[in-house]
Amino acid sequence: MEIPDVVYDTNAKKKYAKGKFLGRGGFAKCYELIESSSNAIFAGKVIAKALLQKSDQKEKMSQEIAIHRSISHKHIVSFNSYFEDKNYIYIILELCSKRTNDLKDTYKRIRHNEYRIPPNIPPDICLFINKMLQSDPKVRPTMKKILADSYMVNNYIPSKLPQSCLTMAPNFNFNGRLSIMPPTEKCASPRRPLVEMNQEKNGVAVVAKAEEAAKTERPNLEPAAIPKGVDDGQVNDYNLRDLFHQLQKVVAAKPEQKVPIVDEEAEDPAATPIFWISKWVDYTDRYGIGYQLCDNSIGILFNDITRIALFADGHNLQYIERDGTEHFHALDCYPQTLFKKITLLKYFRNYMNEHLVKTGENVKTNDIEDITRLPNLNNWFRTRNAIVFHLTNGTVQINFFQDHTKLILCPHMGAVTYINESRDFRTYRFSLIEKHGISKCVAVRLRYARDVVERLMSHKLSSNTKSGART
Question: Domain POLO box spans what residues (predicted)?
Answer without folding.
Answer: 276-354, 376-458
